Amino acid sequence: MTTETEAGPKNWLRERSELGICALLVVLGVLVLTDALRIPTDFAQRGPVGPKAVPILVGSLLLVVAVLLARDVLRGGRGEAEGGEDVDLTEPADWRTVLLLCGAFLANAALIGVVGFPISGAILFWGAAYALGSRAYVRDPLIAAGLSILTFVVFNNLLGVPLPGGPLMEVF
Amino acid sequence: MEQLLDGFATALTPTHLLMAAIGVLLGTAIGVLPGIGPAMAVALLLPVTYGMEPTGAFIMFAGIYYGGMFGGSTTSILLNTPGESAAVVTAFEGNPMARQGRGAQALAAAAIGHFTGGIIGTILIVLLAPFVAKHAVDIGAPDLFAIMVLAFIAVTSVLGASRIRGVASLLIGLTIGLVGLDEMTGQQRLTFGSLHLADGIDVIIVAVALFAVGEALWVAAHLRRKPFVPIPVGRPWLAKADLKRTWKPWLRGPVIGFPFGAIPAGGAEIPTFLSYVTEKRLSKHKDEFGKGAIEGVAGPESTASASAAGTLVTMLTLGLPTTATAAVMLAAFQTYGIQPGPLLFQRESGLVWALIASLFIGLTLLLVLNLPLAPLWAKLLRIPRPYLYAGILFFASVGAYAVNADIFDLLLMFVIGLLGFGMRRYGLPVLPAIIGVILGPAAEQQMRRSLQLSDGSLTGLVNSPMAIVVYVVILLIVFFPLIKKFLPKPTPPAAPVEEREKVDA
Q: What stretch of H or E contains A9?
């Protein structure tokens, strides 16, 4: 009995984790409303409706929808998780993979300005492939480097879309 | 007509022809890849065109658009897992056909159906679009606002299982659309003093983040350790007996698909289903349905393709995207500083007609290239999943960075990508959010313009017959669940609604 009551509130929340979406909507709503109220309206206004009106409307609706969604969740409504070709919903979420993937993505953002795209892009690809379970320690980095350099050359030199080359490309 | 010929003259130059061919090949290749629908394909391939002049870029896009749509049906038939909502119905009959060793015929029925539907749809664009555009010029701000509200309501009500979640998604989109300088007064909204945010959040970033990054993270959390094995297939062909069964469904498809594509009712999902039911009813081989009836592939594919054409009419003449793919296309127009809408046919006449001409060329190339290449496309389905999703993140990053060469955009994409992850987890549809981002600012402008004309009186929003009609339609949609209660209960249709997975992007 005791274990059950201990797990009770935690389980209750886990069952209704969608309330987090309600919380997010409330935060957004408050953010939009406070920002809207701060906009000065005394000058530069053309027409009867100023820059405040729509944010106030959107912000209020966010709060209303948050309440309605919370009511739906508390009454047992659940958002249907999205299926897909490679999605297996019978397994619990694999947070390790997601975190590793986020890490690979952010590594690219952090490094692209320092070491240039050919290197940071390769790190992103290899890191993401590793996170998703690929363990070919020779093939993966080779594909990553090849893809990254090829993309750089195609975009930067052929398509006229500049990407940072970084120190690696300055050598050439 | 003359303009169309001029369009062909522009589109048939060697460079533009090459671009159309590259667009078709890229679009199909990306569209065939499992997990990538046409909206994500277009969003991921946008950066390829950043350095091009608009005409060439849009000719390429036309190819990517139809190619991406076509690619989805291959996945449906050979994997039984549609990459996009338009191809869901194709799997009903296409996959059983492939399992019986008739994959080649299923692919051919799909490819030719796609071609027929697309060509008829594009002819309808040629006939209808200038007419709509001409009359749309007279449409005032109140009417435009009403139509946009209709789009908001339709996209949240018609699609998805839960209205409240659709509305939540729409509001998230509208909030993102608010960020930046107010277009009429230059006041900063939701910028928090950041210079990066003062220009607003680029729609492309939002689209790539929600479709590509959100999807990659979501799949990563639930990655199927043993992906489906695609059914190997030879060169598509049709025997005479098959042709006899398919030509009517091919021609019926556009009748259902085109009008549905043009209205904001969620694109090809409903019309393909209607087409399937129609073909089943009209077929002489009713017993084969569910076990691989070729009509069930031919009809819906032609319908899907024609609905893609219908979508373009609304997008080009009214600036109103009715599907996720059209929303991304609209964003692409905006990156070139071109605003689709009633004036597009006057201001950018050369570009529009070249685009329409290249739709014909793209469809023809699609048929010519894809019939022989089908076995090759089928091989793409075997791509190791780690490489596939790593590649999606990789090209999403390239695209986001290339917009402004700014690391801030990568971080922004990451945050919105996490949002997309959460939305997938809790069943918030992605499409309303994208529509909100794109149409939100435009709707606000039209509303304020209307109220300016009426001096702040709310009657300014309903002072034209058209606006009133649109609002009546909106009320009908909103109160439909209530009305339904008073109607006699219809007998449930005997259509196979089994395992209709909800797929977006």
A: helix A2-15
R_g (Cα) of chain B, nearest Å: 22
Residue range B435-477, pLDDT digits in tens = 898 888 888 888 888 888 888 788 888 888 888 888 988 888 8
Q: Give first-to-last CA distance, chain A, whole Å.
A: 71
Q: What is the mean pLDDT of chain A?
A: 82
Residue A93: which of B221, B401, B455 has the nearest Cβ?
A: B221
User: What's the mean pLDDT in B82-110?
Assistant: 80
Q: What pTM does this model have? A: 0.84
What is the pLDDT, as a whole number, of residue A29?
92
> End-to-end distance of chain B based on CA atoms, in angstroms?
35
Half-sphere exposure (Cβ direction) of B285: Cα atoms closer than 13 Å: 15
Residue B110 has pLDDT above 50, yes or no: yes
If residue B36 lies in a helix (H) or strand (E), which one and from where to where? none
- The residue range of the domain holding A51 is 9-74
Comparing C-alpha atoms, which of B316, B313, B308 is closest to residue B115?
Answer: B308
Q: How far apart are CA B192 and CA B266, in angstroms?
A: 35
As a whole number of angstroms, the distance between CA B247 and CA B261 comes to: 22
A62, A100: one domain: no
B376 band by pLDDT with thresholds 50, 70 and 90? confident
Instruction: Select from A85, A104, A121 the Cβ nearest to the Cβ of B79.
Output: A85
How many Å apart are CA B80 and CA B224, to the nearest integer? 15
Residue B173 confidence (pLDDT) above 90: yes
Are residues B67 and B24 in contact, defined by beta-carbon separation less than 8 angstroms?
Answer: yes
Backbone angles phi, psi at A12, to 5 degrees: -55, -45
Evaluated on CA atoms A133, A139, A143, A144, the torsion sign reads: positive
Pairing of strands B180-181, B188-189: antiparallel
Give residue-wise pLDDT tens across range A2-16.
444 445 677 777 777
Q: For chain A, positions 73-132, list CB contacts with chain B under 8 A.
A: 77-89, 91, 93-95, 97-98, 101-102, 104-106, 108-109, 112-113, 117, 121, 124-132
Whether A64 is covered by a domain: the verdict is yes
Q: A4 in a domain, yes or no?
A: no
Which pLDDT does position B16 carry in this prediction?
Answer: 87
Report residue B100 as tokens: 């019986």
Looking at the structure, do residues A68 and A102 belong to the same domain, yes or no?
no
Residue A3 placed within a domain: no
Judging contacts by C-beta atoms under 8 Å, the chain A residues touching residue B432 are none
- Decide: B43 and B345 in contact? Cβ < 8 Å: no
User: Are A116 and A162 members of one domain?
Assistant: yes
**Residue B320 to residues B103, B316, B342, B366, B440: CA-CA distances in angstroms?**
37, 8, 11, 27, 11
Residue of A nearest to B84 (CA): A84
Residue pair B408/B173 in contact by the 8 Å Cβ criterion: no
Q: How many CA atoms lie within 13 A of B65 on its CB side?
A: 32
- Please check whether residue A89 lies inside any domain of the structure: no
Contacts of A71 (CB under 8 A, 6+ apart): none
Beta-carbon neighbour count of residue B365 at 10 Å?
A: 21
Q: How many CA atoms lie within 13 A of A20 on its CB side?
A: 13
**How many angstroms separate the CA atoms of B431 and B158, rounded?**
12
